[in-house]
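Hey, quick one: can you model this chain's 3D structure?
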Amino acid sequence: MPTKKEVEQILENRDWDTLKHWASEHRNVYRQLMTRIYVKDGLIFWRAVEGLGFLVREIEKLKPAFAVELVRRYFWMLNDESGGTAWNASEAIGSLLAYNPKTCGHFNWMLSGLLVDESLKDGALWGLAQLAQTAPHLVDPLEERISPLLEDEEPFVRGLAALIYSLLRNPHDDFALYREQGPKWRVSAELDQRLKNDQAKLEIYQGGKFVSYSVQELWQVPTLAYWSEQVTINDLEVEITAASSAKGLCWLGIEPIATEEESLRAWASRRFPKWFLIKKREPNVVVFRQLTEYLAGKRQEFTIPLHQIGTPFQLQVWEELLRIPYGETRSYGDIAAKVGNPKGSRAVGMANNQNPLGIVVPCHRVIGKNGSLTGYAGGLNVKAKLLELEGANRSRP
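Sure thing. Here's the predicted structure for all 397 residues.
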């Protein structure tokens, strides 16, 4: 069993790989994280909250229903008969729901019910903001419980409520569901203007660190919507994750979903600081429809708007990739010559490696000078299948 000091070190380093290993070797380590959550003392506390959700998700793979049992235990500890031992329980419950929405999502109403308790409100609202990112459909019915908090005196509460609204309200050009009180996740023009001008500051724990926002920023926060689906590339089953901004597709990866989501989060934190990821299929519907047509041999060109971010050289290389016709290949040297750097094959290879838009920006069509397959983020087997699908001739003159 890991010691208290070892657990603290894991949290200081945010070493989730070791925590994942402990999930199978030392399952009871979750008790140490629960104990650590009793003390709300800054960054390590929040990492313990995050770590508990992550660890329980891993344990759940080995012991189904474990997360549900733990959430129930937390709610029981909030009852008077338990002696009130569940300090900071709302943060912990929120993390457990956000990491295990499929099994624990039905506790969404109970979590939102904690918003009426002043001692639990902050943590419950933070948890709902996390859940809104991983499973927005579970927060969507809760608007009437969250809306009063948009006018709360505390910037932290007001800001988190504003963030949830930003994540859940539909763009103006989407079909809005109406009810007696008007469209969902909408506010009066007066309150909208007030929130747009609200400069009050708050800090939110997000992605392992504290990030400072104004309420105004959270009310208009930009988002990246991502979605994952399993597809077949010439009898090879793979998982594809796509992410889109309001401008266009910015990520398309072919690693297993858990690995891809982790890579996407790390990439987005660098390329889109202060943006939020939200798991939503709708903004990526066209992406997956065109991918399905391409994989069925019914589409040779993608017409998806792209949102590419890279160095000037990377953007130049990626532009050349888009010019490679369907069913044809080019060498790294060919691309290097096109971008005015005939000796830059290695640099082209690095730009290919950093291409976040696999398949759509077809780096799979770039091969070795002798026709050999070289590195591909999704694996050489995927690269071979894509070229086979396109009927590409890999022989080089």
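One thing worth noting: The CA atoms of residues 330 and 366 lie 5 Å apart.
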